[in-house]
# Entry
Amino acid sequence: MKRLILIAGLVATAPAQAAPAKPAPQLVADGLRLYTYHCAPCHGEGPGHPGTAALQRKYDGQMPALLADRRDLDGDMLRYFIRNGVNAMPYFRKTEISDAQIAAIAAYLARPRK
Amino acid sequence: MSLIPQGVSPADFAAALASFTTVVGADWVFTSDDDVGLYRDAYSPAWDEPQERRPSAALAPASVEEVQAIMRIANQYRIPVYPISTGKNLGYGGSAPTLTGAVVIDLKRMNRVIAVDDKRHFAIVEPGVSYFDLYAHIQERGLKVWIDVPGPGWGSPVGNALDHGLGDTWGIYRNHFSAHCGMEVVLADGTLMRTGMGALPGSDTWAEYPYGVGASVDGLFAQSNFGIVTKMGFWLMPQPEAWCTGAITVPKRADIGPLIDFVNEIEHQGHCGEPFYSSPLAAEQGSPEWQALNAGGVFPSEEALDAFGAAKGKPWWHVRLHFYGPAEVVRAQWAAVKRMAAARIPGAAFEDGEFSPTPLPPALAQKYDPVHFGIPTLGTFALTARSDRNPNGSDGHLFFSPVIPKSGAALLRFQRVMHQAFRDMGEPPRIGPFTTPNTWMFHSFVVVVVFLVNRADKAVNQRLRKVFAQLITVAAQHGWGEYRTGPLFQDAVAATYSFGDHALMRFQEKLKDAADPNGIIAAGRYGLWPKHLREQRA
Ligand SMILES: Cc1cc2nc3c(=O)[nH]c(=O)nc-3n(C[C@H](O)[C@H](O)[C@H](O)COP(=O)(O)OP(=O)(O)OC[C@H]3O[C@@H](n4cnc5c(N)ncnc54)[C@H](O)[C@@H]3O)c2cc1C
# Structure
């Protein structure tokens, strides 16, 4: 599973605070909308969300199972996963999610939090 | 760009791409390896092998006129094209073409909901409208209709129906192609055609009466390659006032016969929605008793299986029923089912289930699976994603999905025959005593087996493809045909439908040669190749 090892490496070496300090609120709002539409059906909270269940199993609490709680996923990392897929998560075509939209999702994940 | 279509010169391909660009704009012509790579089948069972079917480029038109212009250019340069709607056909080929080198026409941008009528109960949609989109459209407007969804909500009514996809609510709505009504199609030469009442200018019953007059040609556009569908109508179910559920169990193996006969009768009369069969004993496969009984992988005798069930104190079969309609009626239906089943099926027992007005509270819908209420989700990906049951997850999967009769005798025979087929190949049997049918189709069962693919280990995929091909053969020898399959197996599956020395395929070939003389649309889809490519049939 070369791909998985590569991903694990990426995750391990990612800087904790790679995101820009203050993403524009509009971009964050767009990102939330796109995240809710494209990602939350698998990465949402509660039963019936196979992405969340898989990440729980993968990291066993070492990382938040909920993608929306992650802080280590910057634009490059997100682009990597969205365009390459990972395990049972297939990649997305540009007609589904454009590069600009990936940036908005990244801004949402990098939103200021307590 | 690393691929160009077979038989097309680089100069012609470049000229065609330049013309396509004038039609759809440079942003919507994809030629770089990275961009075109996104059209590979993410779940391909032949990833990075020569057998994998790969596109050369992709185009994303925004309108019917652009699709027509694309077809005229494709005909001029004889460029093979392959239309997709939302392109989420994972497990059956993804967004990749059947013919390597074809240019994918990605209709995702054509995403208008043209109409939803909650008085006459139909919708008309473009190909890029997903089940999520259609559901949101209906919810936002408070319309009183349900849609019928397949497991994954990100697919489309159009793309799903055009591969004969299936869902989980009530009777006629679950078979998405047969619930469609009326199409708009761009033909190979760019002609725009409408079927059924759509052919009558000014008609407003396009999505209500399917035939118009004369030959019904809609079937030519599903699991086939006669045109690019740009609009499609679908009948919708009115939102029922209430729902309730209940389950019947029967103790012995052979009781599945009367159970299925009974459920068929009430279902085909319209008294319940999709039945869901399971075996409570499947959970006992880890027990020492089962390990002993199953030693060496044998299929135990029916008597031994009954004794195992009795020892475990569990019934062999369980069926959950869903009732939809007025509150008094759904309760009465379940009461009638219990009365009739108790009289007719020896040993039948009942589990009274829940009742709710619609819409169900979300937690309740989740408990019984939202697909039974026409609510799109992606929860079904739990089937193959990483979990305790499946700690490595998977790089996708392949569906084996033959059609069998809706009878207990057929199911028990299927279990034994297919179990033996695995053993004959030295494979751990994936079909056996606990296998139950899927009930998406109204008048037949389809039994689905999910095989995990592995991108990193080609040997796993190669073995899987061999096993899969053999399963197709053995099933067909017993009269069980695949209802649907991915590009890698479409030739093999189509060849099993061989009555009259392949009369059905020969007839389709005649039509294909007439309707698409350059053979540019979706060459090879379900075994139908244009003249110049017929020799390469697998
Ligand atoms: C976990 C899982 C569970 C699944 N469960 C189900 C299920 O319950 N029921 C079910 O039916 N499927 C199921 N599937 C299979 C598949 O995901 C769905 O059927 C999905 O809806 C198909 O993708 P799509 O709608 O995007 O169609 P597309 O991929 O867009 O289209 C499918 C094919 O139809 C043809 N086509 C599409 N659009 C056009 C057009 N406009 N003109 C001409 N030809 C066209 C093309 O050949 C295309 O390859 C499941 C898959 C997975 C991974």
Q: What stands out?
A: The helical segments of chain A are 2-13, 25-43, 50-59, 75-84, 99-109. The interface with chain B takes residues 1-3, 37, 41-42, 46-51, 53-54, 57-58, 83, 85, 87-96 of chain A (CB under 8 Å). Chain A has a mean pLDDT of 85.
